[in-house]
Amino acid sequence: MLTGIGCAAQVAVEPPAEPSVAATSEVVAASPQSSLAASPGAIAASPRIVKSGTFVSGEHPTQGTAQIVTENGQRFLEFGNDFRTNSGPDLTVILHRSGNVIGSTPPPAHAIREGDYVVLAELQRTQGAQRYAIPNSVNLDEFNSAAVWCRRFNATFGAAELL
Q1: N or C: which end of the chain has fewer CB within 10 A?
Q2: CA nearest neighbour of 48 among 70, 17, 31, 68
Q3: pTM of the predicted structure, to 2 decimals
Q4: One digit per residue, pLDDT tens: the chain, 163 residues?
Q5: Of all helices (H) and strands (E), which one includes residue 14?
Q6: Cis amide bond preceding 108, omega within 30
Q7: Residue 21, H or E segment
Q8: 7 vs 11, 37, 126, 147, CA distance in Å?
């Protein structure tokens, strides 16, 4: 359980009763847009990795893997089981234009500028696998990193360059 931030948006999803790609996945959906269950009788396509990377620490220790996948025509940012960061207020998951968010921003906060990022959602939890829907309006060619960012204090906890 997270402390210090609003966690009302957290949603746990029970795996479907029948075996499917979603049932064997280590990813948990957090928003209605990122539903894992397909309609009855539908065969889910295997996720295809588009970009991937490893988190580096910024304002706070952050580690683990991130990847962008496509599945059934939808795009998602996924954090692996190895993802970990500290708790904080107003933690948000973003895609950033820079491939080196931490190296290109001044420490200790690694503040980012408006217009250089797109917000995906509130951070679901500070550790473990999680999934965030990426709107179709986002051009992935323009975004080169995923980051955990404290919106309230403009502090980047950590970022992963996505190659």
Answers
A1: N
A2: 70
A3: 0.73
A4: 333 333 323 333 333 333 333 332 233 333 434 434 444 455 667 889 999 999 999 999 999 999 999 999 999 999 999 999 999 999 999 999 999 999 999 999 999 999 999 999 999 999 999 999 999 999 999 999 999 999 999 999 999 999 9
A5: none
A6: yes
A7: helix 21-24
A8: 9, 23, 11, 19
